[in-house]
Design brief:
Low-confidence stretches: none
Strand content: 5-15%
Shape: globular
CATH topology of the largest domain: Beta Polymerase, domain 2
Radius of gyration: 18 Å
CATH architecture of the largest domain: 2-Layer Sandwich
Number of domains: 2
Order of helices and strands: HEHEHEHEEHEHHHHHH
Length: about 260
């Protein structure tokens, strides 16, 4: 794992307060609080990026405290300075083993640009996003409190991650609820993972794929320009070009799945 990146000054006080409130609610049951996503990868874009946080707790945490944790962390009770907060709470006995399941105790989405959502049922929706987040967390999780990331989060197996990438590319191809530039750059990140087994930030992945794939370079360049803007003023990207690119990405993921199966 590379050296932890510093927290951006725009979000540092918020993260400090988030940890303080989590400790107050969870007490000695709190094991670790980790920043993941763009914060961990050193590519947080203020006004565009979400704050992604993984919380690991002892399995003995009383379940009755979870709604209270959601209440004290939800925007605007704790005003979120970013586009949104995506926070997932896991039991430590689950995160200690590789898994493709959702496995969470609580999943909270909140903030100025996110639809408010809290779930205590890991079977309520698709599981692939959680497997991808834990894979990234194992590689680059930024510790905010408690035990180091690799002591608490096991890396999902490569085959599990590739299956999750397949599902994520299908969702992005449908386009529902996703900004076009984010769909393209997530596709680039999927391709880089298939090639290297490593997670890159969206911009770094976009630059890498644009450099190697001339046919898609104009689209990716536009997606990178759009990603510099707030979500509300993102550029409109050609639907057909986005569709064709994501179909190409799906093909690269399928090739990686086949290669992994043949091993």
């Amino acid at each position: 794992m590379s050296s932890p990146v510093p927290q951006p000054p725009e979000v540092r006080p918020y993260l400090d307060e988030l940890v303080r409130r989590a400790r107050a609610v969870c007490g000695p049951h709190l094991v670790s609080v980790l920043a993941v996503g763009s914060l961990a990868l050193g590519d947080y874009r203020h006004g565009r990026s979400d704050i992604d946080v993984t919380v690991v707790v002892d399995p003995s945490l009383p379940r009755r405290v979870l709604p209270e944790l959601a209440r004290v962390l939800a925007h605007p009770a704790l005003p979120c300075p970013a586009a949104g907060l995506e926070l997932v709470v896991y039991p430590a006995d689950f995160t200690a083993r590789p898994s493709g399941e959702a496995g969470y105790l609580m999943d909270l989405n909140t903030g100025p640009s996110l639809s408010e959502r809290v779930s205590f049922d890991p079977g309520a929706g698709p599981s692939f996003w959680y497997a991808l987040d834990r894979s990234l967390a194992h590689q680059e999780g930024l510790p905010l409190f408690g035990r180091p990331v690799r002591e608490v989060i096991a890396a999902p197996e490569r085959g599990t991650v590739l299956a999750a990438l397949r599902a994520s590319v299908r969702e992005h191809a449908e386009g529902e609820g996703h900004v076009a530039d984010n769909r393209v750059l997530n596709g680039c990140r999927s391709v880089v993972y298939c090639r290297t087994g490593r997670w890159l930030a969206k911009r770094g992945a976009g630059e890498a794929v644009a450099a190697s794939e001339e046919d898609f370079r104009p689209l990716i360049t536009d997606a990178l320009r759009s990603f510099e803007r707030p979500r509300e003023s993102a550029l409109v990207l050609p639907r057909a070009a986005v569709r064709d690119f994501l179909a190409w990405v799906a093909g690269r993921v399928d090739e990686a799945v086949e290669a992994e199966t043949a091993r």
